[in-house]
From TrEMBL:
Residues 14-190, 194-370 form the DUF1512 domain. Pfam families: DUF1512 (PF07431), DUF1512_C (PF23542). The keyword Ribosomal protein does not apply. The keyword Transmembrane applies. This is DUF1512 domain-containing protein. Keywords: Membrane, Transmembrane, Transmembrane helix. The chain crosses the membrane at residues 12-32.
Amino acid sequence: MVLEQASLPEWISAISQLLLVLIFIALFTGANQRIQVYLWSRDIRSKLVILESFANDARRRAVEYMVSKGAKDAESLVSRLADFFVISPVDIEPVDIIRRLEHLVNLRSRRFKEEVARHMPEADEVSRSKAEVALEIASALSFIHKYVRHILLTGEKTRNWILIMQLQLIMPMILKIADTYRRALNDFLKGVPIGDSAGPMVALRLAGRGARWERIEEETVYTVADVEGRRVYIVKAEGPGSSVGRPGSATERLIEKLVAQGRKPRLLVTVDAALKLEGEETGSVADGVGAAIGDIGPEKIRFERIAVKYGIALRAVAIKMGLEEAILGMTEKIVKGVEKAVERVKDIIRGESKPGDIVVVVGVGNTVGVGQ
């Protein structure tokens, strides 16, 4: 007996039923999920290779820069400081936590400076500050690479597909941040002003040409200017090296000195770069109350405490920009924002003080490329 050949519709029906059975088996056994996790893991690993190349490139360039400035055993220094860490102080006992945190932050900063100075004895201060930034960027990129790898391996080890899925979803954002740090290294080593230099640049413009600056705190300077009859004390980090100084400590010391002389300031204005929301224009300027400073606590609280102690109005001016714009070379829009901020500060001084009053203005931010 000869079997008749099956028709095309019958073959399609049979294949469809087979596929449905396979899909059911895959859903029942979780095979589809394992395939998806495999694809996510492969995508993460491909991006992890890029992160590793960013970290290695930053370390290599840091070593090359230090060697070009006569550093001794730069490779060893970069390898050691790339993994340098700070353990946060105990926070379940809040008493004196700011002072403890400030001590640890300052100790870390001092340790970096001492190590760089020891390995680069013949380099000038500006070159050393650039080397410190190169080390910071290399350390940041190294941490990003290690942390992403840790999350991936933990997810695979525990078969936590939700953890892997979340990591895969945010990988484009992580890559963008890492790439921004990598590109920022060029601008820091060249010594050009970055977006975060907007605050110090406002201070420099407000002081005017020929101002005489004096050091008042570590890597922090001040000068005195006349703004429409007001005696304005202007504070900024010391440039043109890469430093944020200690604006809070410097301002506190300056105000205590002025009060002791019977010249209590009427107004304290802080100016800093601020992250804009998506849709906001780069270089736009806003003002408010409080201390405009992106500090984890020790410097910021000094502004607040000194203002409360003597009843000084604490005002803030912010120049808006994105994270990428903040750490890359200053753009034309931010330069225009600096000019707007200078005028906004003057408006605040006019409106909230009288001729003869004492005013303190602080330009907060990294002063790379912005001298005195």
